[in-house]
Amino acid sequence: MFDVTIIGAGVIGCSISRELSKYNVKTCVIERSSDVASGTTKANSAIVHGGFDAKPSTLKGKLNAKGNAMFTDLAKELDFPFKRNGSLVLCFDNKNMPDLELLLEQGKVNGVPDLVILDGDQVREMEPNVTKHCVGALYAPNGGIVCPYEMTIALAENSYNNGVEFKFETEVKNIEKSSSGYIIKTNKGDIETKIVINAAGLYSGEMNNMVSKNKINIIPRRGEYVLFDRTAGSLIKNTIFQLPTKLGKGVLVTPTVDGNLLIGPNAVDLEDKADLDTTRDGIDDIIKKAQLSIEMQFPMNMVITSFAGNRAHTETDDFIIEEASDAKDFINVASIASPGLSSAPSIALMVVDMVTNKLNPGKNLKFNPIRKGIRKFREMSNEERKAIIKEIPEYGTVICRCETVTEGEIIDAIRRPLGARTLDGVKLRTRAGMGRCQSGFCSTKVVDILAKELNIPRSEVTKSGGNSILITGTNKQSL
Predict the structure, then answer these.
(1) Is the backbone peptide bond immediately before 265 cis, with ω within 30 degrees of 0?
(2) Res 475: pLDDT
(3) Is 65 helix (H, G, I), strand (E, B) or coil?
(4) Phi/psi at 24 (nearest 5 deg)?
(5) pLDDT tops 90 at residue 472
(6) pLDDT per residue as tens digits for the range 37-47
(7) CB under 8 Å to 206, separation ≥6 — which residues?
(8) What per-residue confidence (pLDDT) applies to 476?
(9) H or E segment at 226?
(10) pLDDT at 181
């Protein structure tokens, strides 16, 4: 019997699990995929929003700026990439400048610090590649960029090291009320728990609807993105938004925390939650809209990939964070669309406060907030490289040339708590395969390392768990 079971190991579920690990609470996280950060968390804008664009009366407005403020300390404790690069909301028509003023005042109410409105010349002095048609912008110095999957992996590892149990490839089939709480029926057996926290993202509606008459309808909203090589990453420094107008919200242009350039997303409501296809029309539309912000043409010869992610959207257009009114001890954390990533730390505080008020647990006196990430060869000085190769010879073998990822890093990614078990698991932890060639060179070598470390045949190594096998047989006989 668990005290708390969290359904979903995305950034929300893992943020909650880490906060719960500060208490003497027996906690379990169950995830239908083979790894953490397998859904919306791994495919989004990777933006830590300032907190000025949500209405103060909403949960988004109340939690965004609070969550944003927590990122500096959280990144330091958990050793994941985060940078406060600042954000700009561009205005292209003097008639719309009052709308910037409204955003400014709204941001102040939400608790966003140091907001200021700049004129067009001040914007271009800060960002020389911004279009000459920009007449002004709202500047938020607290805006940031983060690696959402490295953040989630860090949260999960720290949770695990502080006593939280994780169950992967565990799909919820049904949830039944019991005398002591709930019985979660899964493909791997029953899980008994006092409290359920529903952080299932796109599938949070299905989880709620198993126990409550008050139905939640999650609408998948697909956003497509275009990612450029690092050679284009210096085009801008801040995250560039466009002031919403009657023609739409526009798209953003941003550097990534790893030095790439990212543009997107669009917004298309779907029926199929698993539909992650990109489209020619969608990509063309993103590029056209993003070009409104930048004077020079985007270097399309530097595009290395396009991708899509689905956000969990509801008609209320706000977070749902509450105990189901007709299902005691079933806590919904649903409809966590943007700015969900930015709000994740404060969402976790809110949910854990609800749990501790119910269980009244003592503090975990052995809680250790510190987690160290994988040592990155590409970020080391030559002296540091010599030292680590002497200590761990595998650091002397580069596996991914594009991202300069070594065999030592990949082995660490596999051996550490909740370590990688798939090609994508290695990719998310080390960036092996995320460079210009998109795994063209290193994938077979990573498969070999996984097979050796996991002591399985190469034919059993998968891309992302389940049936995503990579090798089906041999096409040449050994001599």
Answers:
(1) yes
(2) 80
(3) helix
(4) -80, 75
(5) no
(6) 999 999 999 99
(7) 200
(8) 75
(9) strand 219-228
(10) 97
For residues 326 and 210, give the distance between their C-alpha atoms in angstroms, rounded to a whole number. Answer: 12
Contact predicate 145/82, CB 8 Å? yes
Domain boundaries, the chain: 1-82+144-217+314-373, 87-141+219-311, 377-460
With a pLDDT cut of 90, the percent of the chain lying above it is 96
In the structure encoding, which two tokens stand for residue 253, read together? 């242009």
* Helix or strand run (H / E) with residue 14: helix 11-20
Which of the four CATH numbers 3.40.350.10, 3.50.50.60, 3.30.460.10, 3.40.50.720 does domain 1-82+144-217+314-373 have? 3.50.50.60
- Residue 248: which pLDDT band, with cuts at 50, 70 and 90? low
How large is the greatest C-alpha to C-alpha distance in the chain, in angstroms?
76
For residue 181, count CB atoms less than 10 angstroms from its CB and return exposed for 0-12, middle for 13-18, buried for 19 or more: buried
Q: What mean pLDDT value characterizes the chain?
A: 96
Phi, psi angle pair for 166, to nearest 5° = -120, 140
Neighbours of 259 (CB within 10 A): 12
What pLDDT, in 10s, does the model give residues 393-416?
999 999 999 999 999 999 999 999
Distance CA 329, CA 324 (A): 8
Instruction: Give the span between the Cα atoms of 52 and 209, in whole angstroms.
Output: 33
Q: Which CATH number fits domain 377-460: 1.20.1410, 1.20.1050, 1.10.10, 2.60.120?
A: 1.10.10
Q: What is the pLDDT of residue 34?
A: 97
DSSP for 229-278 reads -GGGGGG-SSEEEE--BTTB---EEEE-TTS-EEEE---EE-S-TT----
Q: Which of 455, 434, 452 is nearest to 443 (CA)?
A: 434
**Which residue, 277, 297, 146, is CA-closest to 228?**
297
Pairing of strands 136-140, 116-119: antiparallel
pLDDT tens track for 46-55: 999 999 999 9
**Tokens for 67?**
């969550």
Q: Nearest to residue 12, comparing CAs of 377, 332, 284?
A: 332
Give the other-Cβ count within 10 Å of 386's Cβ. Answer: 13
Helices (H), 27-171: 59-78, 97-110, 120-126, 148-161
One-letter amino acid at 396 equals G
pLDDT at residue 225, rounded to an integer: 97
Inter-CA distances, 464 with 15, 38, 151, Å = 22, 9, 19
By annotation, the residues acting in catalysis are: 49
Phi-psi domain of 346 (left: phi exceeds 0; alpha: psi -120 through 50; beta: other): alpha
Query: What architecture (CATH level 2) is domain 87-141+219-311?
Result: 2-Layer Sandwich (3.30)
- β-strand 82-83 against 144-146: which pairing, if any? antiparallel
Residue 144, CB half-sphere, CA atoms under 13 Å: how many? 23
> Tell me, what amino acid is at 384?
E
DSSP string, 14-65: HHHHHHHTTBS--EEEE-SSSSSS-SGGGSS--EE--S-SS-TTSHHHHHHH
